[in-house]
Design goal:
With about 150 residues, the chain is α+β, with helices and mostly antiparallel strands. It contains four helices and five strands; from the N terminus they run βααβββαβα. A five-stranded mixed sheet has the order 1-2-3-4-5.
Length: about 150
């Protein structure tokens, strides 16, 4: 497998949200239905500042990798980029598409004056490939995230 496949990285405007569905449903199985995914992103997430980024390759309409993110402010992190979601379709993994998305997000954060980039990996300790991606792209574990259902 090629490890340096190039992809075109671009933000998906509302009219193109559906193009991120194939990759996102790999990470978020509750959104197997494209219409449900699009409606949730448009009606619930985008009004709160969520943005969607895709990696595209020739010959495929759908993005092969996506990242959902938002820019925010907090006392803990200051002005920051937070990555809610990042995933690649299985047949496009190990081609550096997710790394290209992370590179774009770092540049966008810098352009917007952000001082930090954050993500939580809720995928569990067994997701070694995802964690290797994060380490390779300069992310480190700085804290534990605690949660409980309500």
């Amino acid at each position: 497998m090629a490890r340096d496949a190039s992809s075109a990285i671009r933000e998906l405007p509302p009219a193109e949200t559906r193009l991120g569905h194939d990759a996102m449903r790999e990470l978020r199985p509750a959104f197997q239905d494209e219409g449900t995914f699009v409606a949730y992103v448009e009606d619930v997430l985008r009004p709160g500042g969520y943005r969607l980024l895709g990696a595209f390759v020739p010959g495929r309409e759908q993005a092969v990798a996506v990242a959902g993110f938002r820019v925010g402010n907090s006392l803990a992190w200051g002005h920051h980029v937070y990555i809610d979601d990042i995933c690649t379709v299985p047949d496009a993994r190990r081609h550096r598409h997710a790394s290209a998305l992370l590179d774009w997000l770092v540049q966008e954060g810098r352009r917007l004056g952000c001082t930090q980039l954050h993500l939580d990996s809720g995928t569990g300790a067994e997701r070694f490939d995802a964690h290797r991606l994060y380490y390779t792209n300069g992310l480190a574990i700085y804290s534990h995230h605690f949660a409980r259902g309500l």
